[in-house]
Amino acid sequence: MLFITFSFLLSSLKPLLLKEKIYLSPPDLKGNEQALLKNVFESNWIAPQGPMITTFENNLSKTVSVSYAVALNSATSAIHLGLKVLGIKKGDKVLCTTFTFVASVNPISYIGAVPILVDVEKETWNICPVLLEKAILSEIEKGQKPKVLILVHGYGMPAKVDEVLAITKKYNILVLEDAASALGSIYKNQYCGTFGDVGVFSFNGNKIITTSGGGMLVTYKKELADKTLYLSTQAKEANTGYEHHQIGFNYRLSNVLAAIGVAQLELLNDFVNKRRENHLFYKNELRDVEVSFLEDTINTKSNFWLTSLLFNSHEIKEKVRLSLLADNIECRSLWMPMHQQKIYQFAIFYSNGNSDDLHQRGLSLPSGSSMSTNDLQRVCKVIKNCF
Ligand SMILES: *Cc1c(COP(=O)(O)O)cnc(C)c1O
């Protein structure tokens, strides 16, 4: 009896004991991170300023070919300051996709500006240009033209940049690009984050490169970069010490974390290539399963930050999601759109039903750059067993 109980216990523990957790998108610290950190400690630049920050900014602006970069403590802060330096004020209207992470939209609220949410198109899951123009015309008719568009490249997939910029140009609307998850993604030979008046990247722990937490604002305009730096470091007046003419923020990236960023950036191409290989592996291995992937179009080269796919129904998506979790594999349903969130139920929303459907049927799979072939096979096996 005792033996039976014991062996039952053992066999029920077995999956937990043997199956290592596969994370959605864990940090991949295989480069010069520790060497550069040692350098920071030895030089005593444990501060929100220092040479690593400058190096990180210079290297990133060179990598994506943009004139100026300002390192900040998160992409959320970068979006907040981006809106501020573009002159967005309380009561101004700000356009944004509804289908995104909440940090794209919250900075609109920080300022007391008004979010205008727009649904997505089916090809890239990013803002629908047709609906965008409808939204702008309708808001103009109501008496107030939106001042800026937050253009998100979701899941690393470039949005329909040409179509969107034609519209923002036509109506003279500024563009803040939320490329938080799209570092290294390319649209027609140009890096995401470099199309707008300002662009934003994230170095959160789950992004394509990480500083544990961090962000960057990039721009071609010196005055916008200078203003961002000024606001991010408590808005100190030059050469005075403690005199302030504006309300600033404490949003600068630490020199310690910038060292991690410098090392991670050296590996960006590797990371993009590996995530693109993950995507190909999944597509190939699941070719006989009834799913459809978010895929490149002829104009895009996505970094495939998270390989994401749609199932035929909510029920089968849930079955797969729960089976993966039971196998100690992390996965996520696609974003809950902002118009469905309690905090944004009041927001004006231009709908075509697409984002609701994506949230119902879509899933992101483990996509980290350190995944082994065995890991990828394990994920695919669980998915196939659901059919
Ligand atoms: C991750 C992410 C953010 C927030 O980035 P943080 O650096 O964590 O503040 C914003 N927008 C999108 C689209 C993201 O994926």
TrEMBL record:
Molecular functions per Gene Ontology: pyridoxal phosphate binding; transaminase activity
Keyword field: Pyridoxal phosphate
A single GO BP: polysaccharide biosynthetic process
PTM annotation (N6-(pyridoxal phosphate)lysine): residues: K207
Catalytic residues, chain numbering: K207 (proton acceptor)
InterPro entries named among the record's database cross-references: DegT/StrS_aminotransferase (IPR000653), PyrdxlP-dep_Trfase (IPR015424), PyrdxlP-dep_Trfase_major (IPR015421), PyrdxlP-dep_Trfase_small (IPR015422)
Homology family: Belongs to the DegT/DnrJ/EryC1 family.
Protein name: dTDP-4-amino-4,6-dideoxygalactose transaminase
